[in-house]
Amino acid sequence: APTLLWFRRDLRLDDNPALAAAVTRGGPVIPLFVLDDDDAGDWRPGGASRWWLHHALEDLAKALSKAGSPLILRRGKAADVIDAVIQETGADAVYWNRRYEPWATERDGRIKTALKKRDIEAQSFNGSLLYEPWEIVSKQGTPLKVFSPFWRAVQAKGDPAAPLAAPKTLRAPATATGSEGLDDWSLLPTRPDWAGGLRATWTPGEAGAAERLERFLDEAVPDYKAKRDIPGTAATSALSPHLHFGEISPRRIWHAARLASEARSNDPMDRGTASFLSEICWREFSYNLLFHNPDLPEVSLKREFEDFPWRDDPDGLTAWQRGRTGYPIVDAGMRELWHTGWMHNRVRMIAASFLIKDLLIHWREGEAWFWDTLVDADLANNAASWQWVAGCGADAAPYFRIFNPVLQGEKFDGDGAYVRRWVPELAKLPDAVIHKPWEAKPMELSQAGVTLGKTYPRPIVDHAGARKRALEALETIKKR
Ligand code: FAD
């Protein structure tokens, strides 16, 4: 009888353990993807993710058809859809790769129990992480709350299992099963079509992911450690959306990075490679945190922050979202996000700090905006990172360490290349004032065609005053 292969965040053929096991089991394989917004609730994919998902599914469908068994697309509650497809096809096994979002683990557990009760084989695999969240723990068997021991523990495990090759052919079931049309799912924006910048930036799908990795390993890894904080350069891999949708596996990345390092420097873990793989492990660490703290996306891990006197500031929030705060590095980041669905990590930290500390707006507002606008929006990474910046997470930057957006800009975008690209109305300002246009001389402003308050906003808050206000707010929760 056929095996139902339930695709989820593993939209690839390469190194896909559930798929490989389904092929090994013998018999036909029925690939299925379910758009299950109901079960995901508030955490159903946001706008930018839906755009990505459409193209990723298109790519996966092509690859599966070529391999011999077309992808079935269905909308609805996963449990119902799986039941229906089993009825239609006579499948006697369902295989999938695990997800770690609390709503998904709860749902998947329920589905597995129900299938087993009906004597249908149900098996899940690890297709998304180097190691399962329960495999990297302290000597006492408890979850690790600090990154460096976590990273040491991953390295101590040695190389993760070698990646599995993509199956060349899949046996299709004798009778075809109905699929919905991807276009009917309306995952793409229409009016207005805001996805032009996304189309120009990305190639969703397995081939696009492999190409990014190859280019990154060829060109950028040796300088990664030195340049990964410079947003004006293409020094990082930009693999995050591909990793999120599982178009490439972290195991594939791990082994490819070490091979390339060995070939380059006779050392499988040279500086650039170690730095890059440790970032891959920040992803693992976030998944670990989410798995062990299912309320991570909603509740501050340091519980006292639940009493923090956040401000309600709709105008400030809108200015931040639109990239009109008057702080060039923050605005550049927010506009890069709007245009491409991605933002450089350093600038994510600066922009997030500005929202949380300069505007005193709840980190969940920022988390929600990123959720809707990032193509790599990821429940674990997004929640863990927002809590990290807010100072309320595990191994977080302390709240009192408040980024100065001018100094951050000057340090990491010294020549203003990044600001000039994303805030073109400031492009002609000299380097010395590009991160603080309000200090430019009238001559400099007029020569650059800048009129503050008109062509570009004045700062919506004074950073020094905002910093003081944030520290005072922090004092109020310390006293409780
Ligand atoms: P690279 O530097 O090439 O790193 C390789 C991979 O490692 C990334 O693709 C990513 O999967 C992982 N990684 C790198 N840095 C981190 C990190 N700090 N935390 C966790 N994983 C990391 N990343 C997301 O994937 N999804 C999110 O929703 C997300 N939200 C964030 C929100 C905030 C406020 C901040 C500060 C960071 C957030 N990050 C998120 C983490 C990080 O900014 C991105 O993963 C990174 O910028 C992606 O670019 P890259 O692929 O070029 O990274």
Automatic annotation (TrEMBL):
Domain of life from the UniProt record: Bacteria
Keyword Lyase found: yes
Binding site for FAD: Y224, T236, S237, A238, L239, S240, F276, D376, A377, D378
Catalysed reactions listed for this entry: cyclobutadipyrimidine (in DNA) = 2 pyrimidine residues (in DNA)
One GO-annotated biological process of the protein: photoreactive repair
Enzyme Commission (EC) number: 4.1.99.3
Family of this protein: Belongs to the DNA photolyase family.
Domain Photolyase/cryptochrome alpha/beta: 1-130
Keyword tags: Chromophore, FAD, Flavoprotein, Lyase
Protein name: Deoxyribodipyrimidine photo-lyase
Pfam families cross-referenced by the UniProt entry: DNA_photolyase, FAD_binding_7
Co-factor note (free text): Binds 1 FAD per subunit.
SUPFAM superfamilies: Cryptochrome/photolyase FAD-binding domain (SSF48173), Cryptochrome/photolyase, N-terminal domain (SSF52425)
Keyword presence, Magnesium: no
GO molecular function: deoxyribodipyrimidine photo-lyase activity; DNA binding; FAD binding
Site feature Electron transfer via tryptophanyl radical, where: W310, W363, W386
UniProt cofactor(s): (6R)-5,10-methylene-5,6,7,8-tetrahydrofolate; FAD
